[in-house]
Design brief:
Elements: E1 5-18, H1 22-29, E2 37-50, E3 54-59, H2 65-73, E4 80-85, E5 89-92, H3 105-115, H4 120-134, H5 149-161, E6 167-171, H6 179-194, E7 198-202, H7 206-212, E8 215-220, E9 223-228, H8 230-242, H9 245-256, E10 294-295, E11 301-310, E12 318-320, E13 324-333, E14 337-347, E15 353-358, H10 360-365, E16 369-370, E17 375-383, E18 389-400, E19 405-420
Parallel strand pairs: 3-7, 3-8, 5-6, 6-7, 12-19
Antiparallel strand pairs: 1-2, 1-4, 8-9, 10-19, 11-13, 13-17, 14-15, 14-16, 14-18, 18-19
Helix pairs in contact: 3-4, 3-5, 4-5, 7-8, 8-9
Keywords: ATP-binding, Nucleotide-binding, Transport
Family: Belongs to the ABC transporter superfamily.
Domain ABC transporter: 24-246
């Protein structure tokens, strides 16, 4: 009977023994007394990944992500619990894993491919494809110890994707590649995904997790905090990542208990929207409200009252392509701040950052100090060049309150808005470049 899942993790824990010295390790061999401290890397983690799913794992450094992936791949054994996998696994774990530095690139390709289940004949048939993807033809017969980190990743990824994996596991390895190669890798990952393979993906790049994955899991302190849609999980991860240590501990316990943090009182609740005026009909939808507002911890300032206005000053959230609009919000400062900068960002529902702006240049030429108690109004004017669809707006303020330059407050998904196209011309993609083809008969 064919199983419905590719990976099943049941109540898995992993404990490591930490010895203070080699002497303590030796004593442990001949004594029943405990001569070590126990570090719990993973604590009772359970989840199931179905066939064809792409699942992202996010979490702070030390949360147990890499340990979990190594156990799924079989390079580590759980202290307790059970892991079951169905299908050929290809994994990119820490840089250089599975490679012998003394062997040449060619020798490592054959060795690594054999570990992943290919015969020498199968590897030989795919060698040119591996070499072409890695783009290191001139160095393939050089020892891997002479390779740069980027070259090593190229070769490791090229091998992994050419063994026709049923399960592909990637642990942040692509972060060391250049941008063009990263895009090449992600395009291949998307192709593997389209072929029905299961993908387990670990990354600190939240946007990549949101755009690539079907589901996400948040680990922290060795525990599974939550799982769900990539956007909701990434939002909780970012909130945890940016919170002060004492607040992060409380938030972590709330997430484990399934308690949602209350939204900022300065931001409108879904029910708190103005009824549209008659002249605003078609431009303001009282039901179009962001349900994913994420207000970070205030560190000296607080953003409130985000609004989109048309040129008549009316509140809108249904925009027309080609029209001019203003995005405004207020910032109240609770501490004196220097080098203050404001920012905004427009994103898609999957978290792709389309564009935005900061006030760095204006602030450098004007306001440099904002006193505690001040309330500033921030306004951005822009022409809507977006094609039809739903979009989200972020708001932010940064500055130095005596502890170095950092975010004073950020609100993710502060507003959502919809764009309708008035032109009969059909635009492709997300941005309308207002370009139309011209043609003439040449033959």
């Amino acid at each position: 009977m064919c199983s419905e899942f590719s990976i099943q993790v049941k109540s898995v824990s992993k404990h490591f023994r930490i010895y203070a010295s080699p002497r303590a390790r030796l004593l442990q061999m001949f004594s029943r007394e405990k001569h070590y401290k126990e570090f719990v890397a993973l604590d009772d983690v359970s989840f199931v990944i179905n066939k064809g799913e792409t699942v992202g794992i996010v979490g702070r450094n030390g949360s147990g992500k890499s340990t979990l992936l190594q156990m799924i791949c079989g390079t580590l054994t759980p202290t307790s619990g059970e892991i079951t996998t169905h299908g050929r696994i290809a994994a990119l774990l820490e840089l250089g894993s599975g490679f012998n530095p003394e062997f040449s690139g060619r020798e490592n390709v054959y060795m690594n491919a054999s570990i992943l289940g290919l015969s020498n004949a199968e590897t030989a048939a795919r060698f040119e494809s591996i070499l072409a993807f890695a783009e290191i033809e001139d160095f393939i017969d050089q020892p891997v110890k002479n390779y740069s980190s980027g070259m090593m990743v190229r070769l490791a990824f090229a091998v992994a994707i050419n063994v026709d994996p049923q399960i592909l596991i990637v642990d942040e390895a692509l972060a060391v590649g250049d941008e063009l190669f990263q895009r090449k890798c992600y395009a291949r990952i998307e192709a593997i995904k389209a072929q029905g393979a299961t993908i387990l993906f670990v990354s600190h790049a939240s946007n990549t997790v949101v755009s690539l994955c079907d589901r996400a899991i948040l680990l922290d302190g060795g525990k599974k905090i939550t799982e769900g849609t990539p956007k909701s999980v990434v939002g909780k991860y970012q909130r945890l990542l940016n919170a002060p240590a004492d607040k992060a501990k409380v938030m972590r316990e709330q997430m484990l208990a399934g308690i949602e943090a209350p939204p900022s009182p300065e931001l409108a609740e879904p029910g708190e929207v103005d009824e549209p005026c008659q002249e605003m009909a078609g431009y303001f939808d009282p039901h179009l409200v962001s349900k994913t507002v994420l207000s970070y911890e205030s560190r000296g300032a607080l953003i409130s009252d985000p609004q989109l206005l048309n040129i008549q000053g009316q509140k809108v959230n249904c925009l027309k392509a080609g029209e001019t609009y203003r995005y405004t919000y207020r910032v109240r400062f609770d501490r004196d701040a220097r080098n203050v900068r404001f920012g905004m960002l427009i994103k898609t529902p999957t978290g792709v950052e389309l564009g935005g702006a900061t006030s760095a240049k204006q602030i450098a030429e004007g306001i440099g100090v904002v006193s505690s108690g001040s309330v500033l109004s921030v306004e951005y004017s822009f022409v809507c060049r977006l094609n039809e669809g739903l979009y989200f707006l972020n708001a932010g303020v940064s500055g130095d309150c005596g502890e170095g330059f950092h975010h004073l407050h950020r609100v993710v998904d502060a507003l959502c808005f919809r764009v309708s196209a008035e032109s009969k011309q059909f635009g492709l993609g997300l941005v309308d470049f207002s370009c139309a083809p011209e043609w003439s008969l040449v033959e």
